[in-house]
Every structure is written in structure tokens, then in C-alpha cells.
Amino acid sequence: MKTLGERFRWRREQLGLTQEDAVKEINRLLQGERKLTRVTISNIENGSQESMKDKVLLAVIQVLKCSPEWLINNRGPVEPSAQAALHSASVKEVRMVPLINWDDAVNAPNIPAASLVGKEMLACPIKCDPLTFALKITGETMLPKFEPGDIIFVNFNFDASDISNGLFVIALSPTKDEASLKQYQLIDNKEFLKSINPDHPSDMRFLKMGDGYKILGVVFYQIKPV
């Protein structure tokens, strides 16, 4: 199943749902905010429509009882893990968060309100802290896991005890003028920030936290474009 539409149809039929059944349940969860039709479902399944609005997607994964990562990217198990299911946000619990740029991230979480005016708002797929912001990946330092165009959701209200080896974080440079995505690593009790792209020179892949870097936020969710 190479396309979102193929996975949508396969899962719908696996659950014994007609297109009309799926439309009815999705619209029930949307509570009138948007109305899908059977034609919309048909367009998704035949590939003529390749994306969905955030809240529609949240309703779809509940009706199809599937993982968003599987439906969108064909990665991981079809059904979400028990832990993920516990934390999945219902449509009523959806929090819309601003899509900020990397210059804004330097000041996070204390971003001036004026800087947030007009920002695109994205629905966070799982329950999140009020001080959550979204960022779009622009560089190649974190390939292959993070590709340009990917969206990451970042909690900027975290406790130091939340930081553990292997987590992906947003780090502030010693000059306090640049924020970047890195992987936190603890090696021989020394803290490092790693660029995971294996093609980068080894002497550029590890930054010492002791050189003045500061962790601003913790990445907890990633979305890849369809």
C-alpha cells in the first residue's frame, strides 16, 4: 500500500465500514465544524485528494483506529500502541499551536505576542502543554530522521529531569542568537548535542553542552508531509 488513499481504504474495509459509515462517524467527531461527504472519502481513496485538514485527520485516525504515522507515512504498526492511545487527543481536546520560525524559537517560550500575530496555527495530534510551539525543519543536519518540510512539535515548558539520553531537543547557541534541532547525548557523564546526519564531518557533529549551549525545548511529535 504505497499511498495514503490505499491505506485509508484498506483499513476502512478491514473494519467493515462503508464510505457512508466513515463519513457519518468522522462528521460526528467534527461536531459540525466541517462536513465531509462520501465524494471526499472517494477522492482520498482514489488519490485525487492527498491531504486532510488537521482536525479532519484527528477524526479519521479515531474512526479508523489507526496510527497517524502509519496512515500518513506508512511507518510503524497500523494500530497505535496502548501508551499512545492513552495520550491521543480527542477532537474536543485538540490544542492549536503556532507554527513559529527558528528566529522566534530563540526567545521561546517568551515569544512576544506581536510576533505570534498572523502565525499559522496547527492542531497538535496529542495532548500538549500550553507552551507548545511547532517548527518546520529547514536544514539537513538531522537527516535522515528529520527532513526539510517536516513539522515538529516542541514543549518549551519542561523540567530538567525530563531530559534523557537520545531525546531530540531545541538548543540555544552560546551567542544566544541561533536555535537548532539536536539530539541530546550523555557520554561518559558528559553532555553533548549531536547532529545525526552521518554525512556531516565528525568534528562538527558533537557540540559540548559545557561550551554554553542551553536546551530550550523538547521535541515530542513529528509530522511528515503527505
From TrEMBL:
Q: Which SUPFAM superfamilies match?
A: lambda repressor-like DNA-binding domains, LexA/Signal peptidase
For this chain, one GO molecular function annotation is:
DNA binding
Q: Which residues form the HTH cro/C1-type domain?
A: 12-71
Q: What organism is listed for this UniProt entry?
A: Chania multitudinisentens RB-25
Q: Which PROSITE patterns match?
A: HTH_CROC1 (PS50943)
Which Pfam families does the entry link to? HTH_31 (PF13560), Peptidase_S24 (PF00717)
What CDD domains does UniProt report for this protein, alphabetically? HTH_XRE, S24_LexA-like
Q: Which InterPro entries match?
A: Cro/C1-type_HTH (IPR001387), Lambda_DNA-bd_dom_sf (IPR010982), LexA-like (IPR039418), LexA/Signal_pep-like_sf (IPR036286), Peptidase_S24_S26A/B/C (IPR015927)
- What is this protein's record name? HTH cro/C1-type domain-containing protein
**Gene3D superfamilies noted in UniProt:** lambda repressor-like DNA-binding domains, Umud Fragment, subunit A
Quote the SMART domains the UniProt record gives: HTH_XRE (SM00530)
